[in-house]
């Protein structure tokens, strides 16, 4: 793995202050399960390599490109804050943040906030697409990080993952 990719992937671990601990997370047949929560995700095409990072339920990257995806659920000790405040938490660690847009959409029958940002990480320009929703006493966040100007090259993969999202009853 190249150092640039490691930097983009490594930031996912520090980004998501709302995320729970990685221990006890299972991911099988597109279903994430851990204590108190179970949810389904849309499939990713070949080329995305799964990586285990502290503070993330599941995360993936594409070798040698700087593209990374992450999904997290926090069901205990999350603040009952508006979606824009929860999104702001995901931006910690980035500098020179510039909002491109924010828009509401429906995901799994709940209102979700999708936000596009330009920012810098350790002085390196990146683009972020973030999506946050609250459902079943949990906060779910999806993130996609890409090199500046390359967000559209894999945005469809994030959209497919979100489209397939469904919160299920935890066993």
Describe this structure in words.
The chain has helices spanning 3-15, 83-90, 155-163; strands spanning 26-28, 31-34, 37-40, 49-51, 58-62, 67-74, 95-107, 110-121, 124-135, 138-147, 166-168. By secondary structure, it is of the alpha+beta class. The chain has one domain (3-168): Protein Transport Mog1p, Chain A, CATH 3.40.1000.10. The longest helix has 13 residues, at 3-15. This is Lipoprotein.
Instruction: Describe the global form.
Output: globular
| Mean of pLDDT | 86
Q: What kind of sheet is the major sheet?
A: 7 strands, antiparallel
What's the number of extended β-strand segments? Answer: 11
Give the uncertain stretches in residue-range form.
1-7, 12-21
Radius of gyration: 15 Å
- Considering DSSP H and I runs of 4 or more, what fraction of the residues is helical? 10-25%
**Helical/strand content category:** alpha+beta
The strand order across the widest sheet is: 4-5-6-10-9-8-7
> How many domains make up the 3D coordinates?
1
Order of helices and strands: HEEEEEEHEEEEHE
Instruction: Give the CATH class.
Output: Alpha Beta
Strand content: over 45%
- The CATH superfamily title: Mog1/PsbP, alpha/beta/alpha sandwich
Protein name: Lipoprotein
Organism: Melittangium boletus DSM 14713
């Amino acid at each position: 793995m190249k150092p640039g990719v490691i930097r983009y992937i490594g930031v996912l671990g520090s980004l998501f202050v709302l995320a729970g601990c990685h221990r006890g997370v299972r991911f099988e047949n597109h279903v994430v399960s851990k204590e108190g929560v179970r949810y389904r995700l849309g499939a990713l095409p070949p080329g995305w390599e799964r990586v285990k990072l502290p503070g993330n339920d599941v995360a993936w990257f594409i070798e040698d490109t700087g593209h990374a995806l992450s999904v997290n659920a926090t069901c205990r000790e999350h603040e009952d804050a508006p979606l824009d405040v929860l999104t702001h938490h995901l931006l910690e660690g980035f500098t020179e943040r510039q909002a491109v847009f924010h828009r509401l959409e429906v995901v799994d029958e709940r209102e979700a906030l999708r936000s596009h940002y330009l920012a810098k990480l350790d002085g390196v320009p990146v683009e972020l697409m973030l999506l946050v929703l609250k459902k079943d006493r949990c906060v779910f966040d999806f993130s996609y990080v890409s090199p500046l100007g390359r967000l559209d090259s894999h945005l469809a993969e994030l959209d497919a993952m979100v489209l397939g999202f469904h919160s299920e009853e935890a066993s």
